[in-house]
Automatic annotation (TrEMBL):
Gene source species: Leiolepis rubritaeniata
Location of the protein in the cell: Membrane
Pfam families listed in its UniProt record: CitMHS
InterPro entries, alphabetized: Cit_transptr-like_dom, Diverse_Ion_Transporter
Protein name: Oculocutaneous albinism II
Keyword set, alphabetical order: Membrane, Transmembrane, Transmembrane helix, Transport
Length: 260
């Protein structure tokens, strides 16, 4: 639902609204969001009651003790920190080895705890309401001023997304608007350790999406997507007219799912 409601929720949506040909036809951020928002509301009207009925009177709890969950999280944090160190010097290599040794020690401790753990849900885990209250106390917002700055920048960026559709004088793409918003937030947050921020960026994910965009553009130049659309349209036309709408909806849904 979140990925389909706006033009920035999913990479294919960004591809659609970034096409200059489609922009000339009136398909921009506001038009995309306006059309999809109606469908999302209809989906919510169906999915929310269904999920409430499906999980009616079901308690949420962890199937593992809290100490094991916290230990797994600690191992993940230490391993992620070690992976982000580029061993370009002897000192950095030594630090990375120490971190990996810490990970190895914690993994041994985790194995010992899992061996002694009887797969039964403790009374502490059953009391999920108490667990949620403890999580809210433990992970509460500590910097409200930073939260206000983030919400301000986020609201401004979303406003610029919509203004980009109605004000022709704004010659900025969605990517540049988001980039300027990120730079503005860094300035407002007064962050000096910029390398720490860059280390938290999921570069592998960004490269994946960049490669995906390149692949989609290459397939468009090869007219493969156009060919798939034409064959789907021909297949829909074969169906009798009274059943054509149903078959068209099913085919478009499954072809889009398989092609994406």
């Amino acid at each position: 639902i979140g990925g389909a409601s706006t033009a920035i929720g999913d990479p294919p949506n960004v591809i659609i609204v970034s096409k200059q040909e489609l922009k000339k036809m009136g398909v921009d951020f506001a038009a995309f969001t306006g059309h999809m928002f109606v469908g999302i509301c209809l989906v919510l009207l169906v999915s929310v009651p269904f999920l409430r009925l499906l999980y009616w009177n079901k308690k949420l709890y962890n199937k593992e003790p809290s100490e094991i969950v916290e230990l797994k999280h600690e191992i993940h944090v230490w391993r992620l920190t070690a992976q982000r160190i580029n061993p370009a010097s002897r000192e950095e290599t030594a630090v990375k080895c120490l971190l990996m040794q810490k990970v190895f020690t914690l993994e041994l401790l985790l194995r010992k705890k899992l061996k002694t753990f009887h797969r039964q849900i403790s009374q502490e885990d059953k009391n999920w309401e108490t667990n949620i209250q403890e999580l809210q106390k433990k992970h509460r917002i500590t910097d409200r001023m930073l939260l206000i700055k983030c919400l301000t920048v986020l609201g401004f960026v979303i406003l610029m997304f919509f203004l980009n559709s109605f004000v022709p004088g704004i010659h900025l793409d969605l990517g540049w608007i988001a980039m300027l918003g990120a730079i503005w937030l860094l300035v407002l947050a007064n962050i000096h350790d910029f390398e720490m921020i860059l280390s938290r960026v999921e570069w592998a994910t960004l490269l994946f999406f960049a490669a995906l965009f390149i692949l989609m553009e290459a397939l468009a130049h090869l007219h493969l997507i156009e060919y798939i659309g034409e064959q789907t349209a021909l297949l829909i036309k074969v169906v009798p007219e009274d059943q054509r709408l149903t078959v068209a909806i099913i085919l478009v849904l499954w072809v889009s799912a398989l092609a994406s």
